[in-house]
Design goal:
Layout (H helix, E strand, L loop, with lengths): L1 H7 L7 E5 L7 H16 L3 E5 L3 H7 L8
Parallel strand pairs: 1-2
């Protein structure tokens, strides 16, 4: 529950989101909700700084124009 609150409070008000494994916690419906919200905010121009050990998660959120493989 703390992770849900920790994600929901800063998201609507910040042009930059710093996510430290946040989208990887919680149950599957919560994770999908996080992913959808992050995608929506990024489409509106929000900057995402993501800290993750999951290559799949990084690839899901990376900007192909800004990243080099």
């Amino acid at each position: 529950m703390q992770m849900r609150l920790g994600f929901s409070v800063p998201v609507p008000s910040s042009p930059i989101l710093l996510a430290d494994e946040t989208p990887a916690v919680g149950d599957q419906p919560f994770q999908e909700k996080c992913h959808d919200k992050i995608a929506e905010l990024r489409a509106q121009g929000m900057t995402l700084i993501l800290v993750s050990h999951s290559p799949e998660q990084v690839n899901r959120f990376r900007d192909p124009l800004m990243c080099h493989e």
